[in-house]
Predict the 3D structure of the following.
Amino acid sequence: MANSIGFASEYGLENHGIYNVNTIYWSLPTPSLYELAIQRREGLLAHLGPLVVRTGHHTGRSPRDKFIVREESSENEIWWGEINQPISPEQFDNLYDRLMGYLQGRDVFVQDVYAGADPEYTIPIRAITEYAWHSLFARNMFVRHSLDEPEHMVPEFTVIHTPRFHAIPELDSTNSEVFIILNMEKRVAIIGGTSYAGELKKSVFTYMNYILPKQGVLSMHCSANMGPRGDVALFFGLSGTGKTTLSSDPERRLIGDDEHGWSDHGVFNIEGGCYAKVIRLSEEDEPQIYQTTRRFGTILENVYIDSATRRVDLDSNLLTENTRASYPLSHIPGSVPEEMGGHPKNIFFLSADAFGVLPPISRLTPEQAMYYFLSGYTAKVAGTETGLSSEPSATFSTCFAAPFLPLPPTRYAELLGEKIKKHKANVWLINTGWVGGPYGVGSRIKIRYTRAMLRAAISGELDNVEMKKDPIFGLNVPTRCPGVPSEVLNQRTLWKDPSAYDAKARGLAENFRKNFHQFEGNASKEVIAAGPQG
């Protein structure tokens, strides 16, 4: 009989096929998980209170190692391909059985939490981990305020994360010893061979992206905040585009920083915490997030720490560029405790354009919004995923969320289009990347300029400003914006050689067109025509 510490659930581990473990730690609070993580040498306590952990060789997501079980109940719905790679039910069962054997005699940590702040769409989630700090991560990242009686909760989706258990590629048909496998029929995800905590939260997000659209809810990889008048803004963008930074605005209240649903009621957070990139975080530019790195309850992942002084160095990329902080939403002052808001008034697509040709801000028509949502353009900066070189590379990640979309992208795009038109949301494309030249020549746009553009768009100050159509991309670009020098709004004038700008812009426009070929069979003529012109 296993030892149990904490509030043991009536829905025991035997329901998952887990037997003969040593000690089960049930939904322990943060201080207890700190003590255990430190006792078990999983991490170090840093100056002012964060827990610092390392994930070893795997410091980012492993997209080539993610699979979905090809089974009867879901196989006709899944967007199969390089992103959603199939694995057979037999292969899953064999690996799962070996995993169950691995857990025998070991300690396991269980967190019973929820995904989805809207009570109508909340689902119970169980995270079963072999590390105490991953249990704390689940506690930070998911919703807990509904958990009045955790011992009575029955999970609808379970994630089992065992970093020290590895796949055998020739036996399991995986691409490496790392595996992230979702089984929609059994409502379970298993993760092994990697300690990177992002895999745990993204497995839950992938499942939510599978079930929410079936209920008419648009699941979104975006952050959300709310102004003093209750006006909601959404920020779409991949890692490194400034999504987390820009939504953490002292003048607005944060609803959430990464994953949301948009229902008939409005916007709700899927998570209960934040998972922010913290490399070279600035106290001046990102004060709210900076302060979370100096608090008890925050996990700092792959951040360098001086073992003698226990002070962290946020500027160091000694371990990876993809340093992370996990903390509960309540760590952000003035955040929305209900994690819900009304229908968005403004939607921002953030792209860190490494070519330095997209306008810093432009207003999109509903058709352009569909086009650029399906395109999901940005420049991936090295470090978020394993296997990237030190040079950033242009990429298209449909719906700004391709790695986490189990359904065909047009399902999400159609839902977005319907909701934009129904609720008359303004949509803006923001270049948080380079101006005055490409990466290596130009410079990253000043964050204070980007914040000024966002404020002007949200306040309505750009509503009556003259717009100039970009001849290559067909985008409507404001000719002036409070707090931003007028020349910054026109990329071409910032380049030393305007003809070099033209060539680079046409090259990117052609990349957009080539990428969009995959959607032309399902997209309307109006949406196809909304792409780059030049």
Q: What stands out?
A: The radius of gyration is 23 Å.
